[in-house]
């Protein structure tokens, strides 16, 4: 029962994270297409505070000589397989740490871009905001999900820990 | 079942078939219970770390938004009304926009004006369109004169919304010159982007700040060899798509002396008046340069200037 419950938790987190990753991937793909065609194809106002073109054509639209839209696309392409339910069922510490590290890097980038939009450009890009919201939501979900499904923390694992301790306790007198 | 029974025993820390008396001190938790408690503690810590990190990120974002919201929309620091501005009367803007392009083209060179200089620099664009960057201040009488030409030229490529009106400083040369203000306005055009930055009110109080990018542009291209050393660093400063720059007013603000906004607008439409000659000649040169940036678009404006500006 507990094992099934743990598996169900991983599946639910994986499904939610997969959906978020797909939304982020779609928005990033749209921004990348706009970057390589013309920013005016973006379905977004181009006057006032909300001005996608002003943001996506600014100097802050590149990072280390790479278009931020392309970096976003690569980010979600990398995150998606790590957020699949199958990946969430894995207890590989490399996968779990790698996933969290990737999301932490993504959130750091989002914070910088929000700062640039608000304080350097005086303009907000709606499509970029979709990407930012998805990244932060994925970070929160992945953080809590990683804590909830960490080896040794699920209900099933706690049973196992307890059982192992009992077995060890029973074996100690015999071995002594 | 057997495991459940064992767990129940473990949880109590006492075998069920063992009799105890009141005098017997309680046994310490079993190893199993200790292991479970340790695992539970680790789980709780992991959740706290994850929730804490999430909270930090959310708080940081909220703080950025709150700080921005409390400092005003965009780079604006005060309302238009507080800056001493009023909305521009639609008929005034319409009068300037209604000057036929052919009339403007004929006025080009009618009087000697301080024209934008062609420069060699990277294109200045926004949203895939050439960007016109204007830097001035409400108090500045030379900016007051220049805005008449800028608004006249730009209304032949697009339209302004929320354009304000103000007058230059009462205590400066050419006092109280009636003019527009770009503060709080926006401009829409299929051919051009426009950013107007008014750095101070008509009384000299800070109004808008240049972004670091704008500062860098102004520092670089409002200096020799791009502008004359005598006008370097002055306002108004205009950068037309990175291809032309102008420092200082196109014409003498004195021609607007003691005229109201509507009087200037009416005179600006008549090429034979002093105001008409100066405003139209300055606007015509700007329009010709803008046509060069837009590749002769829109034809309704640029065809009168020989398509792409008709040379200089």
Features:
heterodimer, A: 176 residues, mainly alpha, two-stranded antiparallel ribbon, 7 helices, 2% strand, elongated, B: 312 residues, alpha+beta, six-stranded mixed sheet, three-stranded antiparallel sheet, 9 helices, disordered N terminus
Describe this structure in words.
The complex is a heterodimer of chains A (176) and B (312). Chain A is mainly α and 176 residues long. Chain A has 7 helices and 2 strands; from the N terminus they run H-H-E-E-H-H-H-H-H. Chain A has helices spanning 2-36, 52-56, 68-83, 85-89, 93-121, 126-149, 155-175, and strands at 62-63, 66-67. Chain A has a two-stranded antiparallel ribbon. In chain A, a hairpin with a 2-residue loop joins strand 1 (62-63) and strand 2 (66-67). The radius of gyration of chain A is 22 Å and the shape is elongated. With 312 residues, chain B is of the alpha+beta class. In chain B, 39% of the residues lie in helices and 13% in strands. In chain B, strands 2, 3, 4, 9, 10 and 11 form a 6-stranded mixed beta sheet that branches. In chain B, strands 1-6-7 form a 3-stranded antiparallel beta sheet. In chain B, helix 3 (90-97) runs parallel beside helix 7 (261-268) and helix 4 (101-107) crosses helix 8 (274-294). The longest helix of chain B has 40 residues, at 31-70. Chain B starts with a helix and ends in a 10-residue tail after the last helix. In chain B, 44% of the residues are buried. The model of chain B is unreliable at 1-21 (pLDDT under 50). Classes of the chains: A mainly alpha (176), B alpha+beta (312). Chains A and B meet through helix 5, helix 6 and helix 7 of A and helix 1, helix 2, strand 3 and strand 8 of B.
């Amino acid at each position: 029962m507990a094992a099934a419950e743990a598996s169900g938790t991983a599946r639910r987190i994986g499904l939610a994270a997969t959906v978020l990753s797909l939304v982020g991937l779609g928005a990033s793909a749209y921004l990348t297409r706009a970057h390589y065609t013309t920013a005016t194809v973006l379905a977004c106002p181009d006057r006032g505070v909300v001005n996608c073109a002003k943001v996506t054509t600014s100097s802050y639209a590149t990072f280390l000589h790479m278009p931020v839209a392309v970096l976003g696309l690569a980010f979600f392409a990398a995150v998606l397989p790590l957020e699949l339910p199958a990946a969430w069922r894995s207890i590989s510490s490399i996968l779990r740490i790698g996933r969290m590290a990737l999301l932490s890097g993504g959130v750091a980038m989002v914070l910088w871009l929000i700062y640039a939009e608000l304080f350097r450009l005086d303009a907000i890009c709606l499509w970029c905001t979709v990407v930012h919201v998805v990244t932060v939501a994925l970070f929160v979900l992945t953080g809590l999900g990683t804590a909830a499904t960490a080896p040794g923390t699920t209900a099933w694992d706690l049973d196992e820990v307890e059982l192992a301790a009992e077995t060890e306790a029973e074996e100690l007198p015999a071995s002594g | 079942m057997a495991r459940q029974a064992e767990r129940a025993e473990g949880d109590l820390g006492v075998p069920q078939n063992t009799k105890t008396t009141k005098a017997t001190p309680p046994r310490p938790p079993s190893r199993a219970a200790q292991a479970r408690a340790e695992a539970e503690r680790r789980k709780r810590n992991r959740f706290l770390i994850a929730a804490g990190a999430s909270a930090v990120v959310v708080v940081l974002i909220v703080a950025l938004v709150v700080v921005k919201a409390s400092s005003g929309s965009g780079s604006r620091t005060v309302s238009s009304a507080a800056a001493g501005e009023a909305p521009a009367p639609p008929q005034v803007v319409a009068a300037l926009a209604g000057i036929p392009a052919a009339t403007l083209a004929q006025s080009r060179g009618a009087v000697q004006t301080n024209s934008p200089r062609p420069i060699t620099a990277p294109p200045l664009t926004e949203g895939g369109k050439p960007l016109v960057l204007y830097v001035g201040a409400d108090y500045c009488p030379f900016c007051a004169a220049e805005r008449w030409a800028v608004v006249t030229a730009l209304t032949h490529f697009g339209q302004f919304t929320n354009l304000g009106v103000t007058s230059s400083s009462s205590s400066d040369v050419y006092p109280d010159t009636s003019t527009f203000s770009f503060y709080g306005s926006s401009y829409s055009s299929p051919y051009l982007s426009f950013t107007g930055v008014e750095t101070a009110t008509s009384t000299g109080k800070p109004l808008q700040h240049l972004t670091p990018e704008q500062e860098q542009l102004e520092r670089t291209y409002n200096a020799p060899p791009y502008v004359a050393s005598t006008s370097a660093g002055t306002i108004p400063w205009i950068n037309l798509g990175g291809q032309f720059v102008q420092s200082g007013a196109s014409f003498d603000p004195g021609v607007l002396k003691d005229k109201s906004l509507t009087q200037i607008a009416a005179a600006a439409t008549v090429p034979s008046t002093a105001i008409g000659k100066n405003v139209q000649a300055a606007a015509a040169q700007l329009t010709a340069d803008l046509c060069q940036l837009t590749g002769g678009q829109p034809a309704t404006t640029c065809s009168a200037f020989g398509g792409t500006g008709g040379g200089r």
